[in-house]
């Protein structure tokens, strides 16, 4: 951006400030800029948590939580802040359209345009896209890391016997071990577990007793 254009932009800003009462009024432009930054920080942080979260069924099986939120809680945070970030980012672009166009077309110094930087950035993005599509390093390393967290949470003591096994009723779980459902029911009641019935799911009974489905499964297996 050349010196005259910068000065014109600043003059415009100063005049606006004068009209707004010397800058004391709440200013929409910096508010939107901060909103964009803060929502991006939460978006990136929740994205990091989603990277290290286990796969859906395993997450429920081991009762996975991070900083008090379960898997679907973090997904909600991520999607809500994604929406806020996109909206705030779009408003930010509109409010600063003139400055952004000038910057992109003329560069920050007045001597030359940004053409070489633009070409290098575009080539880098195309190369990164190819690396991701072909699943070669370092994209494959990132996906291997994700698969590791997805399938091997630290709390996993025994693999989920079948997909969504936590939704099985206690009767099915007892039968799965070849045990009498009525005897399992009596054992669990004798232990003082709350909300136990043969038609309740492993997940519901575990939740009512501050246990994970995995812990309850191992308890039943031990009978
Ligand atoms: C700031 C950087 C971001 C990081 C680090 C990040 C990271 C992640 C990760 C690791 C996942 C889970 C992928 C999986 O299931 O294996 C995810 C899911 C997702 N991301 Fe992001 N993300 C970011 C930005 C965004 C943005 C800008 C948007 C929207 C415009 C977005 C929308 C989504 C959606 C819709 C999902 C699916 C959520 C679900 O599993 O239900 N993310 N993200």
Automatic annotation (TrEMBL):
Chain spans, region Disordered: 1-20
Domain of life according to the entry: Bacteria
Low complexity bias: start-end ranges: 1-18
ATP-binding is among the record's keywords: no
TM stretches of this protein: 31-52, 73-95, 115-136
Domain (Flavinylation-associated cytochrome): residue spans on this chain: 31-97
Keywords annotated in UniProt: Membrane, Transmembrane, Transmembrane helix
The protein's name in its UniProt record: Flavinylation-associated cytochrome domain-containing protein
Record organism: Candidatus Saccharicenans subterraneus
């Amino acid at each position: 951006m050349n010196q005259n254009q910068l000065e014109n932009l600043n003059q415009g800003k100063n005049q606006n400030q004068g009209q707004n009462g010397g800058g004391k009024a709440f200013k929409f432009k910096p508010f939107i800029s901060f909103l964009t930054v803060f929502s991006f920080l939460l978006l990136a942080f929740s994205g990091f948590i989603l990277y290290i979260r286990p796969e859906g069924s395993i997450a429920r099986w081991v009762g996975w939580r991070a900083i008090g939120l379960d898997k679907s809680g973090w997904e909600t945070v991520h999607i809500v802040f994604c929406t806020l970030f996109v909206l705030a980012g779009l408003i930010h672009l509109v409010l600063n359209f003139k400055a952004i166009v000038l910057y992109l077309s003329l560069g920050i110094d007045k001597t030359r345009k940004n053409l070489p930087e633009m070409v290098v950035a575009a080539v880098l993005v195309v190369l990164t896209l190819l690396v991701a599509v072909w699943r070669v390093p370092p994209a494959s390393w990132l996906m291997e890391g994700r698969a590791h967290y997805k399938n091997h949470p630290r709390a996993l003591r025994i693999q989920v016997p079948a997909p969504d096994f936590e939704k099985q009723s206690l009767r099915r779980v007892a039968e799965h071990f070849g045990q009498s459902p009525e005897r399992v029911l009596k054992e669990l009641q004798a232990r003082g577990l709350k909300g136990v019935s043969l038609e309740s799911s492993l997940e519901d009974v575990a939740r009512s007793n501050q246990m994970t489905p995995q812990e309850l499964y191992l308890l039943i297996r031990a009978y």
